[in-house]
Structures are given as C-alpha cells and as structure tokens.
Amino acid sequence: MSNNYNMKEFSSTAVITEHGVYPSTFSINTINTKCKESDVDESIYDPFQHRKLEHPNSDVRSFANLLKSSLGSGILAMPAAFKNAGTLVGVFGTIILGYICTHCVYLLVKTSQDVAKITKVPSLGYAETVEAVFATGPQCLRKLSRTARIFIDWAMAFTIFGACAVYVILLVDSVKQIVAYYYQDNGFTDTMYCLMFLAPILIFTQIKNLKYLAPFSGFANILLVATFLICLYYICTDFQSIDSRPISVGIGRLPLFIGTVIFAMEGIGVVLPVENSMAKPQHFLGCPGVLNITMSIVILLYMIMGFLGYIRYGDEAAGSITLNLPTEEIPALMAKSFIIIAIFFTYTLQFYVPMEIVWRNTKQYVSQKYYNHAQSLLRAVFATLTVVAAATLPKLEQVIGLEGAFFYSFLGLIAPSLMDLIFCWNRDLGRYKYVLIKDIILIAFGFFVLVTGVMQSIREIIRISE
C-alpha cells in the first residue's frame, strides 16, 4: 500500500500513516462542545465533505488495506481453535463469531460517522469516538468523556502489548524447536530463550522513527505468505479422513475456541483509520460495502484453514500450525525460520503503536529536556515487560485464548455495542427498542466471553504448568 504502512499479526491491529501517526487514538480538541443536545440537526454537517486527504484511498485500495490488516498470522492459530470445538461446531462457530465481530465493527464505524456529524469534525478514531459519544450522550455520562477516552487509549495500548507478548512466545517456541532438533539436550529453558530475545528486542524497540521500521512490514508480509503456502502444502500432502475428527467436543472447551477465534479475527482498531482515509467513506458500510466484502473473505479463509488444519493434525494442533511441521524437512524448516523473522519484525512495528499512546499520556509529567531519556526508558521498560510476560506464561495456545477473551472481547464486542447504546439512548432506540435489546445481548455475550474465556484459559495454563 502506498499511503499507509500497516501490519496485523494475531489480529492485534495497527495502522500507521506514512508520517508516523496512529490516527485512531488522538484526543478530541476540536469537538464542538455546544452541539451536545439531542435536537441538533445532524443533516447540516456532512463530515465526508469536510475531510481533507492528501492521498485518499479508492474503494479497491481500502479493501486491500483492510484485507491485508485482517489476514495476519492469526490464521495459523485456527486449527488450534477448531480442536476446542470440533469440525461442524468449528465451521458454524467461526461463521457466527465472524458475523458478530463484523456487526460490532459496523456499530463502531456507524456510531463514529453519526457522532462526527454532531460534533462537527471530519473524522474520528476509536478513542475519539468514545469521548465524543460520552460528551454528546446522556447528561450523567458527559463528565466522564475524557476519562472514557483515556481508558480506551490504555486498553488499546495494553491489548497490543499483550499481542507483543504472544509474539515473543511464538518466537521462543519456534526457535526452541529448531535448536532442539540440531542440539538435543541443550539444557536451555523457556526463560533462557526469552532472555536471548531480550537484547535484540531492546535494541530494535529504541528506534523511534517509523520510516526505519515500516519497510520491514512488506518483507514480513512476503514471509507470512510463503509460510502460509508451505503450511497448506503439508496439510494437503497427508490429509486425513473427515470422519476421523469429532464434529463437536466438550462444551467446557468452547470458551477457548471463542477466545482464539476472536483474537485471530478481531481487527477493531484498524477499521476507523481505513474508513477515515477513503475517498468515498460512504462505501465502507452498506451492502455489499468494503467491510462486508472483506470480512466475508476473511471468515471464509479462517474457516477453511481451521477446518483443514484440524482434520490434518487433530488434537495435536499447536497454537501456530508452523509448530506442527516436521523440523527435519527443508520446507518446514524454512516456514519456521520465516515465521521467526516475520514475527520479530512485526513485534518492533506493532510496539511503536502502544508506545505512542503511552508517551502521549505521560509526557506532561516529564520535563521537556528529558524527553529523549524518558522515551528510551519507557520503551525499555515496556519491552522488558512483554518478555517477562512471555516467560511467565509460555503456553502459546492458552495465552492466545486469554488475550482474545480478555482484551478483544472488550474492545471488539462490549465497547462498540455500549457506544451504540449510549449514542442512541436519547435519540432513537428503534421500533420496540430493538437497539436496546440487541446491544444488551451483545454486551452480555461479550462479558460471557470475557469471564468464561479468561477462567478457562487460566485453568488450562495452570493444568499444563503442573
């Protein structure tokens, strides 16, 4: 893509403009605070006509950007998700969860567009939308608008930090397999492997200029495509009978399936930057629309990969299917090496995003002459914390489920539904208040995923660690 650099792995999303701006987390400082009443004529301001884009994206390019951002190495975790559901439940579960995630993305974008009319700003990011919805919503919530924006800011930051910890776990597991094949009984522990990555991570995360990081995104994408093709080759060369796998498994494992699928598929942080950069943003929603077309393809590919990978490897399916490939064979060794390089570059690029959020919310407490030292220290601290988290929770599959259940269920399911409900509360809840009913159901489902997914993931981590 020519105008945006972006990279999404395990569906932890970052869209960064060519100038190093992460546009979905800015604070609102242009909001028209006088336009907060429900009787404001929204038709007098069209935010689409007021957007001044130097290089607007066409519908096709926006589709490509969203598809690229939604298809990361999270697809390699889908076979592990299916083993917690079964073949039939996995297929239909992926479709249903995909529809729910798509609808919640729709709610976020639609709310953002509607509240932009009221606040009279051309475009809003995720955190901005939350602030604007609270600021123009029920009277009792307006004083919480800034707090809500800061909360979403930090939630987004820690979500991506969590994904970075997942990257480290995948790096460790992949390197450990290769080292163990060539040097058996090497005596290295998971903690030692994590420490091996700490030094290069600390070095690369000190790069503050995005132009030195963004080129690695394209290289990582090429490696990921090659890895995906190699995985398909191994799946198809020794394909098992469909009847060899159960159509469903115990319901107690379903929360792990839901958490993993949401983690792999959810790209809630990328949609507003893509929509904000479109030449015709009115084409993003609707039928067919850029969003619906993209998510239909994403759901189909995730479902196929999960189904075929589970049929091939069954209960042996690992948190990333690359871990199931035979290390002694050259193509498999290439895939494992490719994923190591791609994930490492992705870590450094994704790390840029939460650090921008952290710095924006902390720099007012630092004297300007110490800015460089403070930034370097913060980067080193948070990079170290992701490595420590990886060393503490070294079970890839369970950590993916935990991350998906805890963070992405909130940002991807609960928050968009809550924003839609708050925005419509004093305006229009629809016939028979169907908006109220629907959003309450979605919020309840989000909390169900959060609670059950976290509990089951922690239970599995403890069980495996014993």
Automatic annotation (TrEMBL):
GO cellular component, one term: vacuolar membrane
Topology term for the membrane: Multi-pass membrane protein
Pfam (any one): Aa_trans
Compartment(s) of residence: Membrane
Chief location: membrane
Keywords from the named record: Membrane, Transmembrane, Transmembrane helix
An example molecular function term from Gene Ontology annotations: L-amino acid transmembrane transporter activity
Annotated Amino acid transporter transmembrane domain residues: 58-458
Transmembrane segments: 88-109, 151-172, 187-205, 212-235, 255-272, 284-313, 333-355, 376-393, 405-423, 435-455
InterPro entries found in the cross-reference section: AA_transpt_TM
Protein's UniProt name: Amino acid transporter transmembrane domain-containing protein
Organism: Parnassius mnemosyne (clouded apollo)
